[in-house]
Amino acid sequence: MKYLEEYRDAALVRRVLDEIAATVTGEWTLMEICGGQTHSLVRSGLDRMLPPGLNLLHGPGCPVCITPLEMIDRALAIAAREDVIVASYGDMLRVPGTSGDLMGVRSTGADVRVVYSPLDAVTLARENPDREVVFFAIGFETTAPANAMSVLQAERLGLENFSVLVSQATVPAAIRAIMSRPGGRVEAFLAAGHVCTVMGWSEYEPLAEEFSLPIVVTGFEPLDLARGIAAAVHQLEAGRAEVENAYGRAVSREGNREARELIDRVFEPCDRTWRGIGTIAMSGLGLRPEFTRFDAIERFAVSEIDSAESQICIAGEILQGRKKPIDCPAFGTDCTPATPLGATMVSSEGACAAYYRYGRREGAGS
Amino acid sequence: MCLGIPGKIIATAERDGLPMGTVDFGGVTREVCLAPVPEARIGDYAIVHVGFAISLLDEDEARATLEALRELGEVEEELAREEAGEPAGEET
Q1: Which of the 8 DSSP states describes residue A7?
Q2: Cβ distance of A11 and B17 shorter than 8 Å
Q3: Which of A209, A342, B20, B42 is deepest in the core (most CB within 10 A)?
Q4: Are residues A206 and A118 in the same domain?
């Protein structure tokens, strides 16, 4: 496919890797924020082709992984109602709640549908006027415009039976939280390229300055990732700390104005819990007051819910870059994609799932 | 979910008041909402997430990046050949 294969060209990737090897003189720790990038790095083996001294930590940018346990439990409680269709991105179906997952409740008769687009959920509501349709609106800034549009479209079409279970997160607040915690060792970030297609990169400039932190907007293909790492290493070696764009074909400094306006019309910043990590101030998006009638938590009165996390799972440590999947005693034994203890083993963006799928059952070599 | 992929817009239409497009991903087509990219035209490449085009690819920029890397490689190969005492510019 055009604009995909060229960025998987092994010779070009090798060229950039050679450049990285020729540049590195010290030991540096980088974090890729986005779980999609983690998968691409592990799938291509790029993380193992880097010179020794260059350590990549995997960040918390997996929307499924950080969706709070209580939100999963709320979705399960709502799905158990006979009058409800829960519509969700496919990744969410195997994410473990306190007891069971959406796939499980579906097998016992709940109506849980996988949708590709939030507009598909709106269509479901229109086609099923006698049922309540609840869309599980999760994700980062990449899905926020689409999720926002589902609410606006439901309003426009006058759909009274559509609501959203919102679990939106934002990246800059997570970078701040990671950098502010004691014992943090991240020296540069690869910013998530597609988040930046929407948001641009100006909001990262204060972070780069405050924490003397190189932040490189990076794409998802092996060549993009290699170029992002190269740019970060150049900055670290030169003692610079700037926001740099290594994904110029998709990202501009201003981002996408229309997409940002969609987000701002429907959502506003709020504190939120990141599963395994805890509450991070102003790191989420919630419905604006004028849209609370679309809030599934209020509509189904599920704000109070008892949730209890697995005692074994170390997903929180992994999401914060403190541990890698292979450090977990349950990895690949008690915890597999078929029997996940934590969300990081489920998602196409979860670090544990990446390590499992691409055969990293022992030392990652980095 | 953040794994948006680029596809080519091959048709546009309006549906329920929203600008929609048919996007071709290497032979697989999908209906995509174009509301975030009002400047989109048939033939443009869009990055699509969860059924929404969130960015149009800057094709000049894409070409420039690849060409710069390829040229860099050619220079390096030439230098390597010179160092190895081979005549410059000759294909091996």
Answers
A1: G
A2: no
A3: A342
A4: no
Helical spans, DSSP H, in B1-92:
59-83
| Beta carbons of A349 and B4 less than 8 Å apart | no
Same-domain check for residues B16 and B43? yes
Per CB-CB distance under 8 Å, the chain A contacts of B49 are 142-143, 146, 194
Helix A222-238 / helix A35-44 crossing angle, nearest 10 deg:
100
How confident is the model over A296-344, as pLDDT tens digits? Answer: 999 999 999 889 988 889 998 898 888 999 999 999 999 999 889 998 9
**Is residue A92 one of the residues assigned to a domain?**
yes
The predicted-structure confidence for A278-304, as pLDDT tens digits, reads as follows 999 999 999 999 999 999 999 999 999
Do the beta carbons of residue A245 and residue A32 sit within 8 Å?
no
Counting the structural domains of chain A, the total is 2
Helices A118-127 and A144-156, axial angle in degrees (round to 10): 20
Give the one of A15, A153, A248 whose C-beta lies nearest to B69's C-beta: A15
The nearest CA of chain B is from the CA of A63 a distance in Å of 8
Domain identity same for B23 and B43: yes
Above 0.95 for ipTM, yes or no? no
Residues of B in contact with A194 (CB under 8 A): 2-4, 47, 49, 54-55
| Best mean pLDDT range from A199-203, A274-278, A353-357 | A199-203
In one-letter notation, the amino acid at residue A60 is: P
Q: What is the mean pLDDT of residues B54-78?
A: 83
Task: Give yes or no for residue A54 having a pLDDT over 60.
Answer: yes
Expressed as residue numbers, the domain containing A126 is 66-170+255-299
Tell me whether A22 touches chain B (CB under 8 Å). Answer: no
CATH number reported for the structural domain that contains residue A280 in this entry: 3.40.50.11740
Which contacts qualify for A299-307: CB closer than 8 Å, 24 or more apart? A299/A132, A299/A163, A300/A74, A300/A77, A300/A78, A300/A81, A300/A84, A300/A134, A300/A163, A302/A74, A302/A77, A302/A78, A305/A70, A305/A73, A305/A74, A305/A77, A306/A73, A306/A98, A307/A69, A307/A70, A307/A73, A307/A97, A307/A98
Contact between chains at B54 and A116 (C-beta distance less than 8 A) = no
Compute the average pLDDT of residues B41-67: 93
In a domain, A350, yes or no: no
- pLDDT one-digit tens code per residue, A65-110: 999 999 999 999 999 999 999 999 998 999 999 989 999 999 999 9
